Amino acid sequence: MALGTILASGLLLAGCDRGLRLDMHIQPKLKPLRASDFFADGRASRALPANTIPRGELREDTYYYSGMIAGKEGDVMPFPVTREVLQRGQERYNIYCSPCHSYVGDGNGMIVQRGYRKAGNFHDPKLMAAPIGHFYDVISNGFGVMPDYSAQITPRDRWNIAAYIRALQLSQHGTEAMVPAGTKLSDSTEPESPGAERK
Question: CATH says 105-173 is which class?
Answer without folding.
Answer: mainly alpha
